[in-house]
Amino acid sequence: MKIDPTVKKETAYVLIVTLILSMLLESVFLIIKQWQLNVLFGNLLGAAIGIVNFFLLGLSVQKAVKSDEKRAREILRASQTVRFALMVLLVVISVLIPTVFNMWATLISLFFATIAVYMRPLFNKVRKTEDTPSVPSGTSEDTEGGDGQ
């Protein structure tokens, strides 16, 4: 199956935001003097789970869009079940092996992909504002509604 360019683009966006938030998380652990190697591994695990979850969701939606409504519903439901089970399994592993994965770093970074998705409309608004051409002075909009005073 060929990966849709939109899925690639949005996954890259989620990856970049997740990396930025991961660096911020690591910095906080350094500042509060609680950083250990297991914080890095927990952060990497949680971030990877979030990014892979988002990517698999994108692939599922891509596949569902090409199907009829009943089949699309089945695809999305199955995808959600499998993705959720994998997330729970990996989080349980991180909690059971605290010497390798910091539980808090794992759980916090797990939400970075979700934060990226919720922040996306903000970036789209900023881009639309920047792309809107400004009206040069002296045009009809400049003097609209009167004599320009």
Number of helices: 5
Rg from C-alpha positions?
22 Å
Q: Can you write the helix and strand succession as a string?
A: HHHHH
> Major beta sheet, specifics?
none
Rounded to the nearest angstrom, the distance between the terminal CA atoms is 62 Å
**Number of E-state strands:** 0
Mean pLDDT: 86
Q: Approximately how much beta-strand content do the residues carry?
A: under 5%
**What is the general shape?**
flat
Query: Low-confidence segments, ≥5 residues, pLDDT <50?
Result: 140-146
Structural classification: mainly alpha
Helix content, binned percent: over 70%
Give the oligomeric state of the chains in this entry, treating copies of one chain as homo and distinct chains as hetero. Answer: single chain
Query: How many individual domains?
Result: 1
Give structural notes.
With 149 residues, the chain is an all-alpha fold. The protein has helices spanning 5-31, 37-65, 69-96, 103-110, 112-131. It contains five helices and no strands. Helix 2 runs antiparallel to helix 3. The protein is flat, with a radius of gyration of 22 Å.
